Amino acid sequence: MTIGKIIDGKGFAAGLRARVGEGVAAFVEETGRKPGLAVVLVGEDPASAVYVRSKGKMTVEVGMESMEFRRPAGISAEELLELIDELNHDERVDGILVQLPLPAHIDERAVIAAIDPAKDVDGFHVTNAGLLATGQEALVPCTPLGCLMLLKDELGDLSGMEAVVIGRSNIVGKPMAQLLLAENCTVTIAHSRTRDIASVVHRADIVVAAVGRAEMVKGDWIRPGATVIDVGINRLADTEDGKGRLVGDVATAEALPHVRAITPVPGGVGPMTIAVLLRNTLVAAHARAGLVAPADL
Ligand SMILES: Nc1nc2c(c(=O)[nH]1)N[C@@H](CN(C=O)c1ccc(C(=O)N[C@@H](CCC(=O)O)C(=O)O)cc1)CN2
Fold first, then answer.
1. Of 40, 53, 85, 211, which cross-links 98 as Cys (Cβ 3.0–4.6 Å)?
2. pLDDT per position as a tens digit, 165-199
3. CA angle (111, 49, 61) in 5-degree steps
4. Among residues 120, 122, 205, 249, which one is catalytic?
């Protein structure tokens, strides 16, 4: 039995961060200042705190200025919007990211809408979503752009391929579909109401699973030779040591004999999210300075 290739997202992300680091050094040389990334964390969610800490560490490692703003879970929406307004007007800040999810009393959409689209390094603002949807230059959400980079690295030209994106979130599913469409794929978005989802997925040369349901995509759904990108990060508590384990949205062991290549969880798409965030911050810094960003990002 042959099994497919495991795509090394962690290694690819390290390479991208190294290229960003070179781009940052050239930017500093040219402008005399470091690109700056402001990250806002509201509340005490442990996973969010870990992600924000890694973002800060990796921002500094590539030579950028990291600014972290921690606010209590009880902050009012007005106070948060005031902070964003300050960051919008701060010349040292090229990128603004508000870590999600936010506490339930804060309207995420209003917060995202308050970010200057030119500093929206998450690519969540409707201006950037609209630019992407209409094929114009945009800041693109980090996770789907990271998935696309892995796909192009594995497959080269994606033109004419059948792609099925499972999940229709604004953060992953919809922008992922737009990116694949821009690469001339034939794109289907499948979701919780899709009839006979197994046969829809079975059509695909490319499967991107972003539903947030542990191992929902079964091995025999995958067409032989398909490339599978697993965006899910689901923590299961079923280990004897009580530490739990991470699994994706795809039943990886079952899928491996069917796939050409597949991303693992952990070590696949996850590490790309932060690497692309740094890439987007460098791109935003160049645009704000009226410069052209390096082509190899
Ligand atoms: N404002 C945003 N909020 C959130 C985003 C985002 O892109 N912007 N994405 C996620 C969380 N996230 C970054 O913020 C993120 C998730 C996962 C990883 C990662 O490297 N995962 C590792 C496993 C880590 C673990 O052990 O838990 C992997 O997959 O290998 C990085 C960043 C939600 N919020």
1. 40
2. 999 999 999 999 999 999 999 999 999 999 999 99
3. 100
4. 122
Domain boundaries, the chain: 31-117, 142-270
pLDDT at residue 1, rounded to an integer: 73
Q: Is 55 part of the annotated catalytic residue set?
A: yes
CA 234–ligand 1 middle distance (angstroms):
11
0.95 surpassed by complex ipTM? yes
- For domain 31-117, the CATH architecture is 3-Layer(aba) Sandwich (3.40)
How far is the centre of ligand 1, averaged over its atoms, from the C-alpha of 51 (Å)?
A: 6
Indicate the fold that domain 142-270 takes in CATH: Rossmann fold (3.40.50)
Below-70 pLDDT ranges, the chain: none
Nearest to 263 by CA among 7, 4, 5: 7
Q: What's the gap in Å between 39 CA and the centre of ligand 1?
A: 14
Residue 209 phi, psi dihedral angles, 5° rounding: -100, 115
81 lines ligand 1 (CB under 6 A): no
7 lines ligand 1 (CB under 6 A): no
Digit-coded pLDDT (tens) for 128-142: 999 999 999 999 999
Please state the φ and ψ torsions of residue 256, each to the nearest 5 degrees: -50, -40
| pTM greater than 0.95 | yes
